[in-house]
Write a structure and sequence with these properties.
two-stranded antiparallel ribbon; about 130 residues; single chain
């Protein structure tokens, strides 16, 4: 377990999965998936187990840092939207293609989801959504 202070707060735990890095904080998760990976249901289940362990019956948010290019099976959003405690889903990227993809992903997720070009603004929005 790696823990320590970052600009986002205290990292509770870090997971290096086959698909990428997942950093768990007290009330949100940040993921950075690897270049070229595909986020399938199987890979989502790994992430869901982490969320279940860390946030059982506790509201939390999710921030996806899209610095690498990877594919997402849009059907995973039907599973994510079933998580009642997941109150905010933020995507952070400066790439135009990610903005287009976000507009499609939003159609599948159907819960509070927002696109940001800055991680700090995403974190502020996520924390606000968790508190409300």
């Amino acid at each position: 377990m790696n823990s320590g202070q970052s600009k986002n707060g205290l990292v509770v735990k870090e997971y290096m999965l086959e698909s990428g890095l997942v950093k768990v904080y007290n009330d949100y998760v940040i993921s950075i998936f690897n270049e070229g990976t595909t986020i399938t249901l199987e890979r989502l289940l790994q992430l869901l187990r982490i969320m279940e362990i860390q946030y059982e019956n506790k509201n939390f948010g999710y921030i996806s840092i899209r610095k690498n290019s990877y594919a997402i099976d849009p059907m995973i959003y039907s599973y994510l939207r079933e998580l009642d405690c997941l109150k905010a889903f933020a995507i952070v990227s400066v790439k135009e293609i990610d903005m287009y993809n976000f507009n499609i992903e939003k159609l599948f997720y159907k819960k509070p989801m927002k696109f940001f070009i800055d991680q700090e603004n995403a974190l502020t929005w996520v924390k606000r959504r968790i508190r409300s």
